[in-house]
Structures are given as structure tokens and as C-alpha cells.
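ugh ok fine here u go
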Amino acid sequence: MDNVTRSGKKNLREWVSVDRQTTGAAMQFHEYRTLRSHWARQTHEESLRKLARKMTTSEFREFMWQRSDQYLQSARPDDPLLKSVAEQAFFAGAEKRWVELERPFYNFWPVAVSLAAGMKLDVPMRNIEFPFRYLLLRFAKGHEPHGMAVAMLRWLQEVPDITVCCWFTNSPDALAVRFGDYKPDDPMDVMLKMSGTFEDEWLDKERLKSFDPDSASKLVVHLAAFISLLWKGNDIVTPVVLSKDESKYDSAGDREAQKWLEDRARRKLGRGFDVGKQLEHERERSPHWRNPHLALFWTGEGRNVPVIKMRRGSVVQKASMADVPTGFLGPETEADDQLLSETRQDESLSRSKRFDIFKRDEYRCQLCGRTQEEGVKLHVDHKVPRAKGGSNEDSNLWTLCEACNLGKSDKDLDATPQEPT
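structure:
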């Protein structure tokens, strides 16, 4: 009986796991591997491996920090171990300060990585207000950009200095890349064209054949800048709450209740945020999802404060797959078809052509006789719709008011103009 029960539980777990992977309802993100967990698995330095297994995470981190700091103070410039110890000091210091900041992390959903990576950032470096000096980016399992599982980033704006540490899915080690010596007025895209300085050379020639460390580190900096322009009051960046609290959080009627749930998650998980979670869920609902467009606006006094605003995502209407959709994540309706037809016809005509038709028809609807002076909106319409072979010849064009045009839709009509009432 016990064997059957255990087997049943195992099958249930597998079924739930497959179901979640299929629906995307519970996308899994890589966890940060602490210094202690990293060294507890190492085999090339037995003493450190034993210490890591005996100490707590905080004890081992402090030990590594103090040991590295003491060594660096007395090391000679030509010491062959200097570079390696300096790397250990950086990793220990980054983890220490990251923990002190309540472990801020961002889960980057795949659609957000695509949006950020494809966006041109011509923003001066001085205008990028980074939310935390130390930040962890976590990527979804099965969607690791450049093979990265997680990346730790330190951004010191006053130096200036940006250091990126990347951990990969198929390597026990990490790569550190430093970006420095840029000017505050340098645009982000210009700064990223500079080559980073590699602080670790563990990558062998075979690994380099399938991995571009320069592109990976620059992507992390790009994603961090993306966050910094969105982190204030934009719903593409949303707080991480415990999975058991998600429904409560979504239905909470006041901000205090939401904040309490956020604080509970922070105590257990850290200061976490999802980037693009809602966009990912919306994209999964339709096979014809068109990604939203992010636009950069300059606001404030002197127009020198950058703000990224998102243009709406949309579902391409099946009635006209090649046209720009008018709806937003809604079902296709007759009104949508009419508006699409109207947009398609209007956009196929030049301004001068529409003006000529309006003038010929004396700015009067050729079905009801109403004019622009009566407050109606006039359109130039095709008597035989273009979808049915109608041309842009003057003989196939007439002036209709908005109400008559929408009522006509794509019917073939050739009515005689009515006398005005």
C-alpha cells in the first residue's frame, strides 16, 4: 500500500510539473548559488570545501571576505595569486552587500528579455537612476540568454564602475566583467560598445566556440538600465509575492493589504520583482500575440528626465492578419471588423486624393446628405471594397459620414446621392 501511495504521489508530482511547464502558470527561475554552496561542491581546494560544509552561509561569506581582504593588503603586485584572491574578495563583498540590501532580485520573464534586448537606449549614463547598487537578475529555466542562469551586478555611478558577474547553466564557475572609464554624458548604447575587462579567464577555447561572454555581460547591463527606467510606478515591474498569496494579492482592495503580503514575501525570498510577468501571461493566451512597443520619452523641466512608456500589446485580428490590429486582447467583433475595414481603406489613399474627393462631393455624405458643418466626421470610402477588387479610381470613391460608413461596412453599394433634408 505504501509503495502504491508513493508511486501515486510521484506520478502526481510529475503530472503537475508537466502541466505547469505547458501552461506557463508557474515558470521556474534559477536560484542564486551562494559562496558557501559553491565552495561546498568544489574539489580543487579541500580545506575550503570542508570549511564551507561546516559553516553557515553568513559565516563562510564573512570568512572569505576577511581572508581575501587581509591577503590583498599584504600581497605584492607580482603575486601570481593576486588576481584570483581579488576575484574572491569581489564575490564575497558583492554577496555581503547584496544580502544587506535585503537580497534585491528581478525575475526576468522571457518576453521582457526580448523587449529590453531589442530596445535602443540612447539615454546618457547620468540619467539612469539605478534602484540598487547590487542587484541579482534571475532567468527562467529553459530560457537562459547566452546560457546565463543568474547574474549579479554592481553599479557604482560616482566612480564610474559597472561590474557584472555571470553564472551559467553548464559551468560551476562564474565570469566577472568590468565596465569603467565611461563619461556621464555617454549614451548607454555608446558605453556598451566599449569592450569590458574580463576579471576571470576560466573559459576555455572549447567553451568560447559556443559562448560570447562580451555579449552576455553587455546584455546584463542593458537589462539593468531597462529596469532603472521602469522601476518607478510601471506595471511591467511587479512585486514578487509568495505563490500561496498571489490570489490574495490580486484581489486585495487596498494598498496596505498588498504591502503586508509583499513584506511577508520579502522576509522569506528577498526584495523580489517580476519583469514582464503579465506580458508573458497575455502572450500565452493568444497564438497571434503582438509584443507591446516601448517608447522613450523625455519629461520634466528641460526635457532631460527619461521615461519609458509602453505602447499596448495586441492580438492580431484573424480577419486581416497583415494589418495593424485595433483591438487589445479582446475578442474579434463586428465593430472591430468595420474599424479595420475603415482604417485599411483610409490608409490606402493619399491626403491629396481624399481632399479631391471631399471637394468633388462638396463635403457632403453621399448617403444621408449631412455635411461637416453639422458636426459629422467624413470619410472617403470605396463603393466596391478593395478586399473585393475595388480600385482607387475616382469613380469608385465617394464621401460618407462615419455613421453611414460603419453601417455600410464592406457591402457593395452604389447609391445615388440624396438631396439634403
